Amino acid sequence: MSGQRTVAVVGAGPAGFFAAQALLAHPDLEIHVDMYDRLPTPTGLVRAGVAPDHPKIKLVSAKFEKTAAHPRFRFIGNAELGAHYTREDLVSRYDAVLYSVGAQGDRRLGVIGEALHGVVSARDFVGWYNGHPDHAQLEADLDVERAVVIGNGNVALDVARILMTPVERLRATDIAPHALDRLSEKSIREVVILGRRGAADAAFTPPEIEELAEMTGARVVIDPADLDIGDRETLPVLTQRALAAMDKYAESDTQPGPEERRITFQFRSSPVAFSGHGRVESMMLGRNVVEADEGGRRRAVDSGEREISEVGLVVRAVGYRGVPVAGLPFDEETGTIANDDGRVRGGLHEYVAGWIKRGPSGIIGTNKKCAVDTVRLVLEDLAAEDSVSEGPVDLGWLEARQPAAVSWHGWQMIDEHERAEGAASGRARVKVCDRQELVALGTSMPAPV
Ligand code: NAP
What is the pLDDT of residue 266? Predict the structure, then answer.
């Protein structure tokens, strides 16, 4: 097998970059990869999802930069599927199209008062503090005493940490400037993290729970009774480690003082209703019992017991959800594009990788295997058919529809600008959070030839 092939990758997050890397590494086929993204900036959740106080996780960007430096790679930012082009535009021009668009929606709770001002999704809140241009306008009122984060995943811990970390610690990070300003005026004293099941069912991972008190300087409060769960030896090792970290928090025999900043875990509890005049002021909780269903899965079952408490901010961190791509089959249950191990079902040389393939789970590295597995199928199919490609696709067709597309060179100009602003103010970078400004920076100078 030899010759040239062209592949469009839609979505410039980790799964897209890992796929591009695998495609470009093929020893015989000369594959040209065009990576499209709706944002002018690449790296998806590495830029807009990973918490600003976790800079080590962002180091993976260096690998993506290496991939982007490959002569057969092009980045086409600020070009959105559905707005500037359709899947037909891509399948008619490329030998294969791989969608790595992530999970762009979120799960909802479906409870009364969820639409009240002050009840926000983690997608909005995380996007807001990370400077995602679509979420920069969020009106999060942090001048409240008590916030509740719903969910027991790593995103819930990220949100709780950002809400509780003293702002002087966040200043050195790349947190969005507007978030830094607003967080510096916050008056939150307690963040409650609400889990619908028990401590042993929590989805967060050991390092994230272990670091919580140290990173925030806040007291972490856990009722020892919640950790009294019998034989732990049969539980997965990671669960045992997370429980051991929780044991340490629960050891304290003093009650936190009323003024003490704290993060309180409340398990086996679900919101039943939010209420307030114009904005959320209180929450009714239902207490759950956890029971195994017929398949052995532990489920939260409403006990009927109710509790009402005051709350000024609610962040719903109950998981993301993929959204359909026009023309592609969608699995409503899993929120993914229907696929067989990465081949889109009924697709026209179309493939998926990352969260839109397998659902919103795993860490960044999980996407590497996921993308490589899909690329194996892409290569199998590409090798089976002759291609007439004699080089990269001529992008003239897109220029007419989106004259303000941002190239990799354009992104480098944005990057340089942000880093220079950061260096001038003692910060990792100062993110530009306005789409027009990003596009202006990213299209201000043509790439050197
Ligand atoms: P997640 O890990 O799936 O956690 C979602 C949480 O929401 C679970 O505790 C789940 O409880 C709960 N939940 C779902 N529906 C609910 C409902 N109706 N009411 C109450 N609770 C509900 O999702 P995530 O936190 O969004 O994270 C997504 C992925 O990104 C995960 O794989 C995560 O590890 C990863 N991530 C990693 C890092 C990191 O490495 N530092 C940081 C952020 C995210 P049940 O278990 O009962 O369903």
Answer: 98
Provide CB contacts within 8 A for 123, sequence distance 6+: 105, 106, 135, 320
| CA distance linking residue 127 with residue 410, whole number of Å | 22
Q: Nearest 10 degrees: CA dihedral of 219, 222, 227, 232?
A: -30
CA of 269 to the centre of ligand 1 (A): 15
Give the CA distances from residue 282 to residues 34, 125, 138, 308, 314, in Å, rounded to whole numbers and listed in that order: 49, 20, 21, 7, 10
The CA-based dihedral angle spanning residues 361, 129, 310, 251, taken in that order and rounded to the nearest 10 degrees: 60
Most informative mutation of 56, 150, 155, 283 for ligand 1 (most atoms within 8 A of CB): 155
| Separation of alpha carbons 215 and 192, rounded Å | 17
pLDDT for position 1: 58
CA of 91 to the centre of ligand 1 (A): 34
Question: What's residue 385's pLDDT?
Answer: 81
The better pLDDT of the pair 252, 449 is held by 252
Structure tokens at 61: 């960007």
- Mean of pLDDT over the chain: 95
Lookup: tokens for 30: 């000369």
Contact partners, residue 222, CB within 8 Å, separation at least 6 = 199, 246, 249, 250, 264, 265
- Is residue 147 within 8 A of residue 192, CB to CB? The reply is yes
Mean pLDDT of 324-347: 96
- HSE-up (13 A, CA, CB side) for residue 70: 23
Are residues 432 and 441 in contact, defined by beta-carbon separation less than 8 angstroms? Answer: yes
Please give the distance, rounded to the nearest whole angstrom, from the Cα atom of residue 70 to the centre of ligand 1. 35
Instruction: Please name the amino acid found at residue 50.
Output: V
pLDDT tens-digit map of 105-162: 999 999 999 999 999 999 999 999 999 999 999 988 899 999 999 999 999 999 999 9
Query: Is the beta carbon of 208 within 6 A of some atom in ligand 1?
Result: yes
264, 190 Cβ separation under 8 angstroms? yes
Say if residue 313 is exposed, middle or buried (CB neighbours under 10 Å; 0-12, 13-18, 19+): buried
**Average pLDDT over every residue of 345-369:** 96
C-alpha–C-alpha distance, residues 281 and 312, integer Å: 5
Tokens 């591009």 correspond to what residue?
Answer: 20
